[in-house]
Write a structure and sequence with these properties.
The chain is built from two helices and no strands. With 71 residues, it is mainly alpha-helical.
Length: 71
C-alpha cells in the first residue's frame, strides 16, 4: 500500500519550469510564459524579471537586456 501511495504521489505531482535555465531558448520560455499567464496558472512571473512582458531575455533568441551578472 505504501509503495502504491508513493508511486501515485510521484506521478500526480505536476512538474513545470520556474526558471529560465529550464528552457533552451527565449522562444520556448515565452510560449510557456504566455500559456501559463493566459490560463490563470502560477509560475510564470519568475521568468520576466524586468516585467516587460518578455520571458527570459538572456536566453538565445532574447534581446539580452537586464541579464544577471555572472560571478
Amino acid at each position: 500500500k505504501i509503495l502504491l501511495l508513493i508511486a501515485l504521489g510521484i506521478i500526480s505531482v505536476p512538474t513545470y519550469a520556474k526558471k529560465c535555465a529550464d528552457f533552451s531558448t527565449q522562444k520556448q520560455a515565452q510560449a510557456w510564459y504566455e500559456q501559463r499567464k493566459s490560463s490563470g496558472q502560477t509560475g510564470w512571473k519568475s521568468l520576466d524579471r524586468d516585467k516587460d512582458g518578455s520571458a527570459c531575455d538572456c536566453l538565445p533568441g532574447g534581446n539580452g537586456t537586464n541579464c544577471p551578472r555572472k560571478k
